[in-house]
Amino acid sequence: MSQSLDRQKAKPHLAEEWVGKIYTFLCILFLITTIFSIVYFVASKGLSTFIVNHVNVIDLLTGLKWLPDGEPALFGALPFIFGSFSTSILAACLAAPLGFCAAVFMVEISPKFGRKYLQPVIELLAGIPSVVYGFVGLSVIVPFFRDVFPGQGIGIAAGALVLSIMILPTITTIATDALAALPKGLKEGSYALGSTRWQTIYRIVLPTTLPALMTGIVLGIARAFGEALAVQMVIGNAPHIPRSLFESASTLTSAITLSMGNTAMGSLANNALWSLALILMLMTFVFVFIVRFLEGRSKL
Question: Where, by residue number, does the polypeptide cross the bilayer (predicted)?
Answer without folding.
Answer: 22-43, 80-109, 121-142, 154-180, 201-225, 272-294
